[in-house]
Amino acid sequence: MAAPSPTAPEPEPTASDTGENEDLTAPKWRYFDDELARTTLWTKLTRMPTLTAAAVGWAWRANRRDLLTALIASSVAAVLSAVSLAWVTRVLDALFSEGALPSRVEAALPAVAVVAAVATLAGTIRLVSDLALARLGTQTERIVELELFDLTTRANLVAFDDEEWADAMYRSRDRGLYEVPRMVTACLEVLSGSVGLLSLAGVLAVLHPLLLPLLLVSVVPAGWAAMRAARMEYEAQRHLSTGRRRRWILGDRMASRDSAAELRSYTMRDSLMADYASLADRERATMLAVAWRQTRVRALGGVVGGAATALTYAVLGVLLVVGAMPLAAVGTAVLALQRAQGGMQQLLYSLNRVYESGLYFADFTEFCDKARTALPPVPAAPPPGRLERVEVRDATFTYPTGERPALEEVTVHVAAGETVALVGENGSGKSTLARLLGGLYHPQAGTVDWNGVDYARIGPAVCDRISVIIQDHTRWPMTARRNITMAQSRDEARLAEAARLSGTDEVVAALPRGWDTLLDTTFASGVNLSGGQWQRIADGRGFYRVADLLIADEPTSALDARAEARFFSTIHGHARRTGAAVVLITHRMASVRMADRVYVLDHGRVIEHGTHDELMRQDGRYRELYTLQADAYTDPEPEPVPDP
Asked: pTM to 2 decimals?
């Protein structure tokens, strides 16, 4: 594992820092720290043109008219600023000439009027540039966010099981995507600042060529210090990424309605607060150490820059004394130097912003590149037709963080109109196999075929013919109707049928606004449902979707006995009536008796398969599991009472 970044020191570990938090504060992506520490400032600067071009490209996509307006207006305003300075020389010449003071003031008035007019025009043009930039920032942020979510919603599901991918996505969302509009603004400021400095440099060069190198010497130290400080902060932010994600999750659990009851039942408050405080203390200690180092670097830059500025004014004094520059020219030079120093510092500040934003923006671009590699390939086969047979053949699947396959050489099949049950103990691979059948995962070896065509060749279109009742279903903050119909078109007759089959009709009947009730208590009109009611909502989604294959993963885990019996009776009837294939995953062994075929999984392998009667005749795992549950519902014979 890579050593911690030297710019992100950690405090001495406490009791709550060890154990559970260790894998969260020292993640696998920390190998980037060494690479970042070895990267020189020059290497980072050479990356800036590429990042700048990418950021401006986003702005061009957002609104090219606003981009061009901001670009032209800011450049023109910078040139006008130098023009006004050139006219200041005429003002000073008139004021320092011989003659009575009123005559000199009168002679200076035309030049003063020009300076005032040019300054007013430059200010007006800057307002136009600022407006265009404000509009551009909002529009750029919008399309960047849409790009991110377009990629995250299309990426293969297995990518979300990859810790490195998850951390990259967090960093991208946490700050990376929001740096794009800031970087565009900073790039335009750099451009306008460069134009302004070139104009001022021309003025200084005319006054005396020696002033240009003195100007650079006086401002470069401060610019170096600012860039060095930005790098320190970025390294610290990257180091803290996973810990912040952990802290955010803990904070969400401590303030969430869903976890409030269990938090209190298990008296978790003190433990969670200690974990949260430990992570917060670690972050505080790291950022305080960084702030101290930044202060020292900036102080060094300020001292060197101040000495260089003093040297510049001393040289001006010498030039005036020896007669190399007239008094008016010296006065103009002082103004030009002050303005140039301010402009140079602003330019370096903007360059620093480009550099700093570029570091975070690189997280966004790197994640987008990573996400694109996780997108499904272009389909090589047409959309699937009506289901005849789905078959998993010799499929092996391993999760990105898994040490052993979750499924190994698994073969199962289900035909239209059949009900197939997957049973086994926890961790046997049932849910993983269901996700393969649902097209959510693709095996690393073997195939999953729809009517003989590999899912991988069909692509995401296979999901259009599959309905999945997910074990850990999502409680969407939407109305009851939308929680059933999801993204499909509204069909009231189909909605009523799905509600009847799943028992959701009883839930909706008790809601204050029926189907239009918002199922989220974080809003004023929202209501809260019980776990069993949410289970019925999730089951209703499966029945509402028009599909040839219905996969139900623990669809009754939160239902009462009556609702559970109703569901299993309904799902078998649904398969016979519609001709759809049903894959049922459940620990309720009695409910699989009517299945056409049962597959028993153990540690990722199919160890038995057949009908209920066939498996009961075998002295195998299925009979063992079935008998265990059956015995639990059978009254044991009373033990004989011994004679007194």
From this structure: 0.69
